[in-house]
3-hydroxy-3-methylglutaryl coenzyme A reductase
Amino acid sequence: MTDPENLVAQVREGDLRLHELEDHADADTAATARRLLIERETDTDLETIGDYTFPAEQAEPNIENMIGAAQIPMGVVGPVAVDGGAANGEHYLPLATTEGALLASVNRGLSVIDAASGADARVTKNGMTRAPVFRVAGVAEAAETVEWVTDNVEALREAAESTTSHGELIDIEPYVVGDSVYLRFAYDTKDAMGMNMATIATGEACAVVESETPASLVALSGNLCSDKKPAAINAVEGRGRSVTADVLIPGELVEQRLHTTADAIAEANTRKNLTGSAKAGSLGFNAHAANVVAAAFLATGQDEAQVVEAANTITTMDAREREDGTTDLYASVSLASLEVGTVGGGTKLPTQAEALEVLGLRGGGEPAGSNADALAEIIAVGALAGELSLLAALASRHLASAHEDLGR
Amino acid sequence: MTDPENLVAQVREGDLRLHELEDHADADTAATARRLLIERETDTDLETIGDYTFPAEQAEPNIENMIGAAQIPMGVVGPVAVDGGAANGEHYLPLATTEGALLASVNRGLSVIDAASGADARVTKNGMTRAPVFRVAGVAEAAETVEWVTDNVEALREAAESTTSHGELIDIEPYVVGDSVYLRFAYDTKDAMGMNMATIATGEACAVVESETPASLVALSGNLCSDKKPAAINAVEGRGRSVTADVLIPGELVEQRLHTTADAIAEANTRKNLTGSAKAGSLGFNAHAANVVAAAFLATGQDEAQVVEAANTITTMDAREREDGTTDLYASVSLASLEVGTVGGGTKLPTQAEALEVLGLRGGGEPAGSNADALAEIIAVGALAGELSLLAALASRHLASAHEDLGR
Amino acid sequence: MTDPENLVAQVREGDLRLHELEDHADADTAATARRLLIERETDTDLETIGDYTFPAEQAEPNIENMIGAAQIPMGVVGPVAVDGGAANGEHYLPLATTEGALLASVNRGLSVIDAASGADARVTKNGMTRAPVFRVAGVAEAAETVEWVTDNVEALREAAESTTSHGELIDIEPYVVGDSVYLRFAYDTKDAMGMNMATIATGEACAVVESETPASLVALSGNLCSDKKPAAINAVEGRGRSVTADVLIPGELVEQRLHTTADAIAEANTRKNLTGSAKAGSLGFNAHAANVVAAAFLATGQDEAQVVEAANTITTMDAREREDGTTDLYASVSLASLEVGTVGGGTKLPTQAEALEVLGLRGGGEPAGSNADALAEIIAVGALAGELSLLAALASRHLASAHEDLGR
Amino acid sequence: MTDPENLVAQVREGDLRLHELEDHADADTAATARRLLIERETDTDLETIGDYTFPAEQAEPNIENMIGAAQIPMGVVGPVAVDGGAANGEHYLPLATTEGALLASVNRGLSVIDAASGADARVTKNGMTRAPVFRVAGVAEAAETVEWVTDNVEALREAAESTTSHGELIDIEPYVVGDSVYLRFAYDTKDAMGMNMATIATGEACAVVESETPASLVALSGNLCSDKKPAAINAVEGRGRSVTADVLIPGELVEQRLHTTADAIAEANTRKNLTGSAKAGSLGFNAHAANVVAAAFLATGQDEAQVVEAANTITTMDAREREDGTTDLYASVSLASLEVGTVGGGTKLPTQAEALEVLGLRGGGEPAGSNADALAEIIAVGALAGELSLLAALASRHLASAHEDLGR
């Protein structure tokens, strides 16, 4: 029965469906059988996909219809000193990507930051959100519902928190659009990214809203959460961690290591990341923060689709004149909605768990939430390094051509 | 010399730097040495990260400072019939993710689409963009520069296309903000995602602009491209492939397989994906298209950071009454800026190349560009399935509670 | 001395400057002299501009360098029954505009609303905002400043409210971007639109922030207010009044008076106001709410430049089936940031004050704030009427052509 | 019959409706009767509204249900030298507003600009747009329709231009969202703002699309135009005139007249107008451009509701070091979608026509379009002056407090 060929035969004869194999065999055998089937139906050889090196059973919470694994090259950048609210000391950051030159660039940035005695970083806000949408008869009922919710936050808190041992309700923000009422629940989910926790807790609270008000639940997510979409509500109000990181780099270091000046970098940042993004109607005012966020997410088992909003970043670069006439570079990144966790989801998978170990952040922190805070701060410093390195490259190329201009 | 311990010793003694190992050993040995170092410095065991199963040399174009690989579970969904401009017939879609339930959900959607005789899909626009920013003295010079560019597109085309055997310049769109001039170059890059091609070609054209006009290049990317940021310019004008997919599902099928009605699904879509996203100030009018885009990108070796804009999707769901009184569900997704390729970048890596083989789309298409078009169309159908399945789940839960309401 | 020709001569001789005339003559004489000067310098005849019919002195708080007045045609629409949180009963709405057909269209909509027994309306949020920006050394100081502010809201409230007899501080929301800290102060400004009140109060609070934290004020407005710019922060969080209005129109009335069906109107609204606006990257999901807002603002002395954000509106239209098989039309508008007042600013000017009298809303309300609430609700109903009328016109044209289609 | 009291009586008896008065009396008598009725029904005295000084008949194309006029104070700022593509020489700009201090502020800015030998200005793009939305069966028909349109632009041009003696079709840009096809028509409407011209011409072209493709027109405006909504499509692609203006102000002048420095102004601009607007999710990157646009629109008879998108402005301020060590201020504004005309609409009304005379721009230009171009350029210079003056005020206040800081 648990022989892959046997399973293949059963699927071919219509006795089994492709997603039912795990009901009849262990996870690895099921994956093998499924791979065989796909190989035969598509006339392919999936040897390397099948050459994964963890027990398939470990991935059962993470995937269905498994045939194997994608292997994404992983490297490491750093070390860099981070002076954060939660992170402290020297850290290596593992990154998984297929984009050549990315790690080299981030590494160069980190090395300059380290030489400038490290970066500061702070989580300035924290809250995982879920925003159900309710139907009401009209604006009068909407106002009535909002009033009830505002007056009964404690009852809703009790319902929501009854579903979780860790999560805490922070706030419920109501929004009305005609006969739709949206309630944006925000939770402190500690070291978990917390989407599931927030969804389950909110579901329980919704039952109370439905029983006590005229409102009927239409969808447990009404897109004001807003999950996996680039939305201003996240950019403004935050989701997951709002985190900032910055560094002050002595002018000498800018010249020696980045081969340009603070003024040239600041100009490139203003024309590209501020004015250019403004003209583009962008929600992202940065050069390539998504590169670092995506690669860190992949390495550490975060939700890859959340890169969409997690990469939301404003980068600032300023030339600061010192009293001695030299000019330092002030550089910062501010990520509004970085959703990260060190427990749950993909963080338990073997390679991802090891990457979190490299950071010293695997599992729950002490106090609770501090590991996820630290992860957010270190990713922010990585993004800062990436911005610094790319803008310096642009500016130094420009300086070179400016020098040529003078030679005309 | 090529012994890992030897390399470790040299780094420890300061004779080598962490990123220089590949200069002194083969790629696998260098990765091993680097892993050893990180293990010792962070007091960790990186056994599974080191247990990658491809020659490290193959990943050299994709990563620096390699220590191993992240293994992301990969599964498969489908098959589904796609009637596209480029894709045709039944396809399996490989997806790599750590998000449990995702493949089950997409698979359910695909199965309903298939039962409804498949989805239509079309690439409606194609163009990889790069938008440098130039400095001019002021608006008078800006107008002068724009005029020169408009009058000399052919000269710029010649310069740009001199750098590439495949890419073709489609258009140059100028934008002026004070003393900054942005030129958005769009290219047909065929089966390559094409960022590098577009960047190199644009660099060559910029040299011409600089020599013939008063404009000085500040940055080869001025963020009107817009790469790896969620920007309205991409949502409106497209980047990579603009692709749409849709399906008409008979009412009977909606009831039997999705346990709800077209009206209930359409209501959930309107309140959540349209009105909710509108209120959220979102650039994404969908439920979770990013999940499918991210998982397909990971499986097939696309640039994971581009999920940010590639997931830009408007989902529509409508109830269409038939003459016989029954009501069908019309469902569509429109992705504005899906950047995909079947050659170059991460597509060459072993597991990723195999995933493209499953799709029958590895390498260049015939005619050129048709493989990338087909990949875009199939990903769009996958996203359609994900939207359908999730909205149906929301709507059926709602229907259930609506039935309870009636019983009050 | 107070003779206009005398003043003209002095300006011509360089003894007086154009804006200093009021220092040497009464307001009307100064305006006359200034008009004479402009007439001579531009070779024009400004007879009608000079033919204003109020004492120029009355306009001194509203304008400098006065030469006369623009006369904008004013009409009236209604009456319409409004069942609001503040507004109640039948109301006429005065509108000033130069756009032909606007009043006819709004009037048609109001007449249908009235026949459907009137509209409901509710102010769901109220708060005039001002958001100064401070400079700090970096993210560490930023976090420190935010913490101080969060812990000292009462001290800031005291400072802020010391400047005003009416205004009350509702909330202070902090935002950090690198070395910039933004504090968004929200006030209940009662029947005043309240920008000046909010600015003065915030200025006083800023002095406290500067004295107690390392933060230095850069600008009293840091654009997170956000005044006279279309910003998602207002669309999401509101500014001035957030107000909604709706109506349920029996199907029979839709057919008889609007010559179309609820389904056709709902379709036009979805494709145009929701999907079309989504694709356009818009912050406005409506047809022409700005027309009504601008015309009501002009008539009642509101700040015309605030139309930019005051017109921010989501319009929804749904077909609601009744048990008897007929289909009603549910229509709503939700304006996120309608800044209105019934005291101060342009509301004191003669024609504007009379327009407020027509509404029964001139001056302070009882309780305080209720007049401005009622004005917001009535403008919302006007906007609802405009949306209804235009969408019905589009839908009926479409129905007509649909009928022709059937005849093919 | 034409006696106002007689008309009032007829309305009261139900023999006439409020909007039918003009059918039974001349425009002034009708307005008088309507005013009497409103006065009696609302127990008010509308003396000043009724004290308008133009023949009511002149306003018939602009308003229905007229009761009189709103009188808005009008002043004048300038003169300022403008070196534009169309505007040239010294200009006074009339502004109508109720916002005290606005004209004083703009006037100060213009005076500094004039002292710096004036501003440059350029219209960089011109096109009035209208974007109908069509329904198709699905994405296959959508692709088919877009292909037909792309191949038949000349046929559509012929149809569109058959309706107008002045307007010229520039371009048709197609957009697909599922089963909706949007076609964005852009026209050169010369000296007219051109909305009506564009609408009528597009209507004619739509008939051709409907007869030659499977597409059915749902609405003549599908919101990708986008009229009277703040939309990225306008910010990116323009609507009406895209216009920029700038000035280079010697450092000495900045100090003497603005009491601050180029560096301080640039800092305020970056933190407020760029970074602050970025964080606010704004489509407006300026301080208060809407103030000048709204006031100029009111004075010159433009469409007041279009201020919503016409005020879309990016303001840049940079400190430019000179070789002699002093620092100049470079200031610019770029308005993406300024819809203006010098013929048609409200421009014919008496006070508005006189205001255009002050500018020397009443009626059609020579060549056609040059008057509207010049008006756009002068309004842009006015907006530049407003930005300059407000940012200088913020910066000088800041400098003052910075000086105090030093004294601590």
